[in-house]
Amino acid sequence: MRIILGIGGGIAAYKAAMLLRLFSEAGHDVVPMPTDSALRFVGAPTFEALSGHPVRVSVFEDVETVNHVRQGEQADLIVVAPATADLLARLAAGRADDLLTGTVLTATCPVVIAPAMHTQMWENPATRRNVEILRGYGYTVVEPAVGRLTGRDSGAGRLPEPAEIRDAALAAHAGTRPRATARTEVRPQTAGHAGPRADDERAGDRTPGGPRREGPLGGRRVVVTAGGTREPLDPVRFLGNRSSGKQGIAVARAALDAGAEVTLLLAHTEVPAPAEEAGLTIRSVGTALELREAVFAALAEQPADALVMTAAVADFRPGAYRESKIKKDPEATDAPVIELVRNPDILREVVQRRGEGGPAPALIVGFAAETGSEEASVAELGRAKLCSKGSDVLVVNQVGTDLVFGSDRTAATILVRRGSETEETDVAGGKDDLARRLVELMASHPDMRRR
């Protein structure tokens, strides 16, 4: 496969050299295409030595070959990593003022973009809008990681590790048809739509109620919950958990990429919420009770084929909410006692309603975070929970202070009920890897195929 590797001018450009090597070692022909700014961070000889191709930056080099058109026509995949805020803006605007942007503009193959920049730049409305526009063009935009940035700052905007970008790029090439060349129109945002839409020729395959979207989940509707609920104690305090929301967002994106129409019910997250786009509806919730109401509303308003409960729902909530902040009495020697009450088990309720013939999806997927105990291992607890919850699929994560929560990587066992037997699949790697594997299992599940 011939891959164009575009490299933007950011400090993360050094990772592009490692990404180039990963592609090359897998047998792909990689053409490095840095911007002029990128060469201020990593010199041309590095990319030339790793790829065996000369580095070209300008459309005024190799003019006799019409190089930007030739490269675009010959490419099977274009990967841009890192993509700076400036490069995102130029690509979104359809600029063609250097070899890389000109090549992207002429190509009809899948395009995968991995942004990297400071958190404030990533969260700026202009950047978020540019990401929406690029996704509207049919490009795959990989969400940046959360971690150490340039200097002492940390936050969202870190370039994912090269192996994760490689996996996302190869998945996009394997699962995405060549990008349509029809004109794309970006329409103003309205209350009912927050993302870009293509013209009538192309918008239908991503619009709810329109023609069937392509992919293994084409024509299916999936409801995904993500993030951690927060149970208020007083106006400034709450009972919560350490869920970042990364895994649920990854599942929503994988289902969307597989052709499903996705409703994402989003509780508190430690990463920016994805931009709403055609095929993706996002609703915000705060508490477990709000999430419960949102789940049953989503299942009642339109039939759903699958429910994926990745959200970390608080098991308990304070029994009483204080209207004013609880003060620390300097004269008191003991602390106030907070009474907790049990929250509803949303997953079990959905299973129960399905058994009673109520509105419920064909496939119900639960997530379980386990630490293990002296009496039982994580795997044993997971199998027991699959039986007690009654879900069709259960994803079991071992969690802890340095495990899973907030991390870009995960290790899980996916338990799939098939009649009287339980199939177990171990997945270790990035959270996107787990999301894609889960979606594959969902698409192949008999209940989804019969729906």
Supply database-style keywords.
Rossmann fold; 19 strands; globular
Largest sheet: 8 strands, mixed
Number of helices: 15
Q: What's the number of structural domains?
A: 2
Shape: globular
Question: Would you tell me the structural class of the helices and strands?
Answer: alpha/beta
Give the CATH topology of the largest domain: Rossmann fold
- Alpha-carbon distance between the two ends: 37 Å
- Name of the CATH class of the largest domain: Alpha Beta
Mean pLDDT: 84
Count the beta strands: 19
Level-2 CATH architecture of the largest domain: 3-Layer(aba) Sandwich
Instruction: Tell me the helix content.
Output: 25-40%
Q: What is the CATH superfamily of the largest domain?
A: CoaB-like
Pick out the low-confidence regions: 176-211
Spatial strand arrangement across the major sheet: 12-11-8-13-16-17-18-19
Strand content: 15-25%
Rg from Cα: 24 Å
Can you put this structure into words, describing what you see?
By secondary structure, this protein is α/β, with parallel strands linked by helices. It has 2 domains: 2-175, Flavin prenyltransferase-like (Rossmann fold, 3-Layer(aba) Sandwich); 212-450, Rossmann fold, CATH 3.40.50. 33% of the residues lie in helices and 23% in strands. The protein is built from 15 helices and 19 strands. It has helices at 13-25, 44-51, 67-74, 85-92, 99-106, 119-123, 125-136, 162-175, 200-203, 246-257, 288-301, 346-355, 378-389, 431-444, 446-450, and strands spanning 2-7, 29-34, 77-83, 111-115, 140-141, 145-148, 154-158, 221-226, 231-234, 237-239, 261-266, 280-284, 306-309, 316-318, 340-342, 363-370, 393-398, 409-418, 421-430. It has an 8-stranded mixed β-sheet with strand order 12-11-8-13-16-17-18-19, sandwiched between helices. Helix 1 (13-25) packs parallel to helix 2, helix 3 (67-74) packs across helix 5 and helix 10 packs across helix 14. The longest helix is centred in the middle third of the chain and has 14 residues, at 162-175. The chain starts with a strand and ends with a helix. Residues 176-211 have low confidence and may be disordered.
